[in-house]
Amino acid sequence: MSAVAPIDVPVDAKTERQLRKGEKAAERPTLRKSKEKLTSKGATIAAVIIAILWTTPTLGLLITSFRPAELINTSGWWTVFSNWGFTTNNYEQVIGGEATTVTLGQSFINSIAITIPASLFPLVLAALAAYAFAWIPFKGRNIVFIGVFALQVVPIQMALVPLLSLFARGFKIGDVALFDGLGAGGNSYGQIWIAHTIFALPLAIFLLHNFISEIPAELVEAARVDGAGHGQTFFRIILPLSMPAIASFAIFQFLWVWNDLLVALVFADGAVGPITKVLREITGNRGQDWYLLASGAFVAMIVPLIVFFALQRFFVRGLLAGSTKG
């Protein structure tokens, strides 16, 4: 018997469009069934209830931030319609610096100066380390990666005292003095940058490694065949393909550093104090001005809200990246 070779029949554009429409029509019932399985009235009602419970405190905080001090001290925000009264005096006191020695505007700039480098430094180091763990074979690679992964369970509080001792004493690499006794709670951005970078590296390396290791090996091998070194492979192939994961972790790190108080209390003092530290001091020595916290909190929320909503699509894309194959 002789095998008959298949004949390629040319298909015009109109026929091809009709075939595609037929394929999409065949997929619609499957998609409809999937949506019906994944969504239900009960889940929708539960999501609405959770959203209401989640946003109610924020609404109360917003209303409280515009109420006079005497009404805040004598009634709850839910009585706003019976005890009507709004004022911008709280925001004027907070922004004008009447409540603290360091103005909120200055601390706002300090938070930006702390957060941006403290987000970039761990991302750069973690991306390079993740590439090395994923695509550069070296002796003891798995053991080192397990050690880095295990650092995630170490509480931050355990590292505060050693870091304080290190910054207070100063240390050198050869004849180069990296720090010359900055002191505990020094007036420098350097030590808080280093602290945030150290605390963020284990999780950043772990997350980026999981994403980078899933990049098809054919791409890396093709680059090596073409003569590309590790540097060219990283910057031209790995880095562009890893941008969703990098952007997702960048948002996490930015929000975490911006809202951090513990590290700021220990390593940022005086003129370099961030906005979270000023919010802590805004209530006065005895907490008599606690009503200013509502307005101060909304001022501090401006940048995180802008960052999240502006980069939300990158955040969602980064979370979904690698969740499916094919």
Question: How do the strands and helices of this protein lay out in sequence?
Answer:
Blueprint: H1 13-38, H2 41-65, H3 69-74, H4 89-96, H5 104-135, H6 141-150, H7 156-169, E1 171-173, E2 176-179, H8 189-212, H9 217-225, H10 230-241, H11 243-258, H12 262-267, H13 275-281, H14 292-300, H15 302-310, H16 312-320
Antiparallel strand pairs: 1-2
Helix pairs in contact: 2-14, 4-14, 5-8, 5-11, 5-13, 6-8, 8-11, 9-10, 11-16, 13-14
Give your account of this protein's structure:
The protein has 326 residues and is mainly alpha-helical. It folds into two domains: 22-87, no CATH class; 104-320, Orthogonal Bundle (MetI-like fold). It is built from 16 helices and two strands. It has a two-stranded antiparallel ribbon with strand order 1-2. β1 and β2 form a beta hairpin. The two termini are 39 Å apart. Mean pLDDT is 78; it is low at 1-9 and 322-326.
